[in-house]
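== Sequence and structure of one protein ==
=== Format: two labelled lines per protein ===
==== Data for this protein ====
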Amino acid sequence: MPDRFRIDGHLAPTSPLSPRAAFERLPWLARTQVKYEPADLWEADTAQLPPILADLRRSLRAFARDEVAPAALMVDAAEGDEHGSSADRARSVLERAARAGLLSDMLPRPIGSASPASFRYPLHLTAALKTEELAAVDGGLMLLICAHSLGIVPVLLSGDVGLIRRRLLPALRANRAGDLHVFAFAITEPQAGSDVEEGHGASRLDPGTVARRSPGGWRITGRKVFISGGDIAASVVVFAALEGEGLASWTAFLVPSDAPGFRVVRTEHKMGMRASGAAELELDDVFVPDDQVVGGVRDGWALNRATLNISRLPVAAMGVGFARAATDAAIDFACSFRLGGKLLISYQDVQLSIADMLASTQAARAMVWTAAGRRQPLQREASAAKVLCTDTAIAVCARAMDLLGNHAVLHGERVEKAYRDARLTQIFEGTNQINRLAMVEDAQEQLAAAMARLADTRRT
C-alpha cells in the first residue's frame, strides 16, 4: 500500500512497525486469527449482517444516494412552500419510494414488496436498517417515507384479516404502482403528549378525542397534533377514548382522510425534518363504521404501547443515521480544509475527535442491531436504545460542529441539518425522559423485589 495512505502522526501501513505489516509475519495459524484486510467502515458493518439483510442495506443506501440526496437540501430550505416546486420535489421522491417498494415493505411479496426471505428476521430490524440509511442522507425525506409504516403497524398487530384485506392490501398495491396511499398514526393530543406514551400519566388524563356509539359504528370528535405525515395521509389510525371513559378505553379507528368532518387544520413549521409535515387534525363528529375499528374496542392502549415498542427501534436507528451523517461530514471537512498550512486531519486532536465520533456511532448501531434482533422487542431495550442513540446523535453532531467551526452553521455543510433533524428524535416516540421511565416501568418487578429484599434485611 503506497505511503499516500498515511496521515501525520501515524506510520504507513507498510512500515514493519505497523500492526498490519507485522501480522503478515506471523505463522499461518496466528494469521487466521488476527490478520484482516482494510475495509470501508460501512461495508465492514454490512458484512456482519445475514446476506439477505446485507443486500437490503445496500439497496437502501443506493436509493438514498440516488433519489433522496439530490432533493434533500432544497426541500429542507423551502419548508412551507406547500404548492411550489419543493412540495412537488418531495412528492416525487415519495412516489419513487413507493414504486421502489419502500411503502409496501411491511409485508412480503406478492402481497407487499419485501423479500419473503427477509421475514426470517424481525420487521423492526429491517425497519431500523431502512431508517438509518435514509436518515444518513436526509431526516425530512426519511420521515416522509417511514412515518407511513408507523400507521400500518397497529393494523398488522390487530390481526384483523378482514380489515387488512379490505383497507391495507389495496393501499399497498396502489403504492407499488406509484399511486400514493399513505397511512398515519395519531395519538398525541393538544393537552396530552407524553401522557399517551406512559401509563401513570395516562391513568390521570382526561382524554380530548372521544368516540361515542352511533348506529353501525362510532362518531369521533377531537383533535390530534404533531402527526407525522398527517397532511398527506389517505388513512389515519386515530386513537380515541370511549365517551365517559378514560384512556383504558382507548380504541383505534381507521379513518379515511376524505371522511366528512375530518380536516387538516395546519402543519407546523419545524426546526428539523422539515420535508415531512407535522399536522394538526380535527375530527368533527366523524363517522367510522364498526368494521374499521382496529383490533377490538378498548384494545387501543395495548396497540399503542406495542406499536411504540416496535417503532422506538427505528427511531434509535435514525439517531445512528444522523450521527453517521455528521461524522462523514466532519471527516470530509477535516480531509479537505487546511489550517496553518496543514490539513485538519493532520492534527492529533482532530483525529481524537473523529475517533470518538466513529466509536460512538458504532456503539449506538450495535445497540440497535442487538435490540432489534429480538423477535419480540423488549420495552426496556427499545427505550434504552432510543435514549442512547438519539442522545448520541446530538453529542456527535455537536462535536462535528465544533470541528467545522463557523462552517458548521452553513446549510450546505450537512452538519447543521443533521443536528436539527436529530433533535426531534429525542422528542417523538416518547421524550427521552419518558423512555427512561419506560425502562424503569419494564424492570418494576425486579426493582420492587430488590426493595422488598432490602427491607427484610434491614428488619432482621
